[in-house]
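pinned: reference chain
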Amino acid sequence: MPLFKTINFNSSTKILVWEITETFEDLFGQVVLNDINRNRLNTMKSELHQRGFLSIRKLLQEAGYNDFDLYYDESGKPHLKDGKFISITHSFNFSAIIISEQKVGIDIEMQREKIIRIADKFVNEKELSRLKSFDNLDYIKKLTVKWGVKESIFKIRNEKGISFKDHIQVNIFEIEDKKTTAILEMENVKHKFSIHFEEIEEYILVYAFEK
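pinned: its structure tokens
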């Protein structure tokens, strides 16, 4: 399928979203891969993961790049050779990238009831008690936003030892706000982030900027 959505956030930041409807063969035939990433692709056991991986390369091409413009550091964080910041994500049938002159992170997640069962792994008791006052659907949406926020922040900082539950606090928000703020506090150092999010079909797209 063609590009699903482009968000021109500002003059220096662009978000591109792809709906993955193509077969593995279709995607593979439309992208170029460097030797390292071709080997990575061959080690992936899930075709869903492979298609997500290839759809990211389609998004790179839509943004004017290709796989040879992208590299990963020792911790697996992606970088662009021109110095711009990039973050990537894919979940089931959607993938997305964000490219910016600012430090950024992005995450897309399907809204699923499963998140209720694992909520205590990434939100603290205070956050949970506040969210449980909402109906089940809103509860799932807000938990999914919170997960996306924390995942996006982790992608920006990319530091060992970060606990989603203990170190990242998301400030109060409503789904219709489509934005909030968050703080990563670790070893007595605070990092502040501005957060933006939106629903895309049954998914939640979140992207974060470090202030």
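why pinned: Residues 136-157 form the longest helix (22 residues). The chain has a mean pLDDT of 94.
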